[in-house]
Amino acid sequence: MFPAARGGYIDDHNFRNRAWKSVLEELRIDYRKPYTMRHTFTSGALDAGLSPAVVASLTGHTVETLYRHYAGNVRGLVELPEL
To answer: Whole-model pTM?
Structure first.
């Protein structure tokens, strides 16, 4: 997920136990998996008006995948015609 200072990547199990849980506890936020924040970021970025192409690039998705997984959760990303 994140590059380590000494090369390679940070072990996600150690990250959750050493950093993630304590940060959430300090902020009095109920535990959630770090992966959940990926959805929070993506939906928030789209809701804030970033283009789907930019958000897809930032998250490593294709625009098609972005629409499939997040479009239903973001106001204004998919507009229905008036009847």
So the answer is: 0.61
